[in-house]
Amino acid sequence: MNLNSFDLAPVEPLSNDNRPRLLLVDDEPRLLSSLYELLRDRDYHLVTATCGSEALAQLTKLKFDLILLDLRLPDMSGHEIMDYINAREIDGDVIVMSGDVGIEAAIGALKRGAYDYLRKPYSREELLKTVENALQKRRLAIDNERIASKLENSEKMYRYLVDSSPDIIYTLNHEGKFTFVNDRVQQLLGFTREELIGKHYSVLVHDEDQERARYAFNERRVDERASRNVELRLKCNPGTGAGGGIERTFNNTLMTISLNAIGMHIPDHEVKTREFFGTYGVARDITDRKRAEEVISYQAYHDILTDLPNRMLFKDRLGLAVIQAKRKLTELAVMFVDLDRFKLVNDTLGHVKGDELLQQAAQRLKDCLRRGDTLARQGGDEFTIVLPELRDRQDAKAIADKFLESLQRPFDLDGHQVHISASIGIAIYPGDGETIDELLRHADIAMYQVKALGKNGHSFYHNSMLDVSHQKIALEQSLRKALEHNELEMYYQPQVDVATGRIIGAEGLMRWNHPQRGLLAAGEFLPFAEENGLMLPISDWMLGALCRDLLQWNANGGEALRLSLNLSPQYLDRGDFFEKMRGALTRYGISPAQIEVEITENICIRNPQYAIEQLNKLCQLGVSVAIDDFGTGYSSLAYLHRFPIHTIKIDQSFVKEIHDENGHYPVILAIISIARGLGLHLVAEGVETEVQARYLEANGCSTMQGYLYHRPISLTSFIDVLQEQNRRSSPSVAVLHAVPSAVDEQPAMIAIQA
């Protein structure tokens, strides 16, 4: 028989109940049954086999503590089974049971490692005692093996803890020479144990740290006064390249072994003298920690994105520059730089591209500076510069011009060609301020003056700017009161169907009846509303005002009129806009079909999926959607077809370019073709001449608004115009647009070229 055929199955370990498992092998059913009955009440786990092949099958499948084996089996001998057990190093003791009276059988079994040999017939007591002795011997052997293993593991653990410690562990004798050092010293410093044993500790210590090391390495104290956390620099073996060729800094925690020479033999009360024996120490490598501390310290004073000084370090350097300028009686300049159109890039291309733009812009600004100048990132897209030791203001002007010139070149953001500019405010010490805060505040005010005048330039601070700044603050405060005092009003600019000459819609323009300054257009106050968090309450007011106006229009025969309101991006981003719209329509009893919401195309790009969800909810309510100022933003036809759009409005900046009704204006033609291809309604804004009207009508745009037809008028005047039109003819469908523009009546969006 091929015994190797029994190697296929894995051996199953002993059962979890820890009972001894016995294999009983005998080809005589009566004897096997008798043996089984004899042992089964002894708390053993018994398995039987009636032939050699069954026994081998069990041995390949299960693990046994004891095998009771008959030598004479029908298919093989017991000796062959024992050879199989020995060849495969199967763990388990064997008791041979045989009726063979020959001495050779017993010798053969014992030579093969049998625990005992029982000759049949055996007595019950003899069998039970032999089995118990075999199992007891096995248990003792296992216990001894376990104890030996624990001792070995304990010793290994001790050696591991010492030799594999991340720290250098060492002992010194009373002379300061090494008596023990672990393997870690070779890994960190490149010195072997043999090279250091018997050597003085000073061979490892940096020359400048020898004096401090003398107290640490010769430490004699054993209590809390013992040396702790003494930082020393240790030398690396130059021939091994250990430590990366650098000196490493170590943190020493020292303990002293203080023993009496005879303290091991006599009671403590008889000890008369104590003798210093040596020093035990642990040296921990803190080189990486020191580097980390340096990095943390660096990051505390630098901007992580641009690697420029941050506002904290900038103020420190500006303070030093002011002290020097005061001592030397010289001037210095502080610049406040704000990147124009950065927010648009960030919103349209994403924050990753925005970060890349900031890094590139920072490098260009840095390249324009002199040695000794400081460029810092104030936060967001704002930078500050200090220019010490100015000869005159022309030095600051020259650098500001360099800044503007360097930023004129396009920025490449992974294939996106982006153009930006900067608004730069300049304050001069000491004329514009003698403190850090004054100089920064005045430079900031000068920067905002540049922004107010159209951006992309620089300006020196002047006291008159402070008055303008105060006026802005006063305007903001007055605007907050305008809502409480009901000083806001909606005006309407009619839209005309040029084919019939009838008014079929109107665009609503917000006005502020200012108590001192009179009627203000939206462009004079809505930018402050957006900057100061007032856009949301103003938009809430507008929603209610438009619904109230619709009630009056309906009462005067304008039931079919449809009112569009132009949403501020801040208002659309607010999650409760849909609920506010639905609540207002329900409260005033307005049909959703009379409302059309206008959005700028940049809203679609900022967060397209969110915008789609919000606009779809409005469409399900019955409100229609229009894109205002189409073509002036970051247009994407891929997004356009995904939005529930009903109307496209041609921006007035394109309409103004029409000077010849027989000319060719491809942008306008493209917008008209897009609207026609998508089946959208089309409205042209800012129509002021007959030439413009004829060109637009000839090319397929028949709905227009502008000074050619009507200027913005109050609600009362608009209702009078509607009533006059109704008297001349029957009422027709009107589309009424109400737009709280963030800039002016016809807001212009800035395009980003990609």
UniProtKB/TrEMBL annotation:
Matching InterPro entries, A to Z?
Answer: Biofilm_reg_signaling, CheY-like_superfamily, EAL_dom, EAL_sf, GGDEF_dom, Nucleotide_cyclase, PAS, PAS-like_dom_sf
Ranges of residues in domain PAS: 154-225
Q: Residue ranges of the GGDEF domain?
A: 330-463
For the modification 4-aspartylphosphate, the affected residues are D70
Q: Which keywords describe this protein according to UniProt? A: Phosphoprotein
Biological process (GO) annotations held by this record are:
phosphorelay signal transduction system; regulation of DNA-templated transcription
EAL domain span: 472-726
Tell me which residues make up the Response regulatory domain.
21-135
One example of the protein's molecular function in GO is: catalytic activity
SUPFAM superfamilies recorded: CheY-like, EAL domain-like, Nucleotide cyclase, PYP-like sensor domain (PAS domain)
The protein in question is named EAL domain-containing protein
